[in-house]
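Protein entry
_____________
===
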Amino acid sequence: MDIISQLQEQVNQVAAIAFNTFGSLQRDAPPVRLSLNYPEPPANPTEESANFAEQPKLMSAALVKAAKQFDALVAALPLSEVGEEAQLKRIAELQAENDAVGQELQRQLEAAEKELKQVQELFSQAADNCLNLKKPD
């Protein structure tokens, strides 16, 4: 897989981890009293609440690890050693090459269409000749 595809995959991985982390935190967080006007939320100490204390640490570690892998991939990108002028020149060269290839493809397409038309005419003539050879009984 090329470096750009790896970067895209890593961005998706970071997004998925962040999404799952925020969702899990929202789902599993214990209730909190928002204001003195509200009653104290019921405390339900369970095994899950004991795991909840460690869960954010594990999720944040996974998120940091994924972010570091992304940073490593970014660092592996090749650096551009040429200036903007050279890049624009290279883009113009590539566009000219693309135009030349496009024109060649157009010529080949026209030649193929011409050949197809000839084959269709020959087929039509052959079919007419076959029909003319058969005489109704």
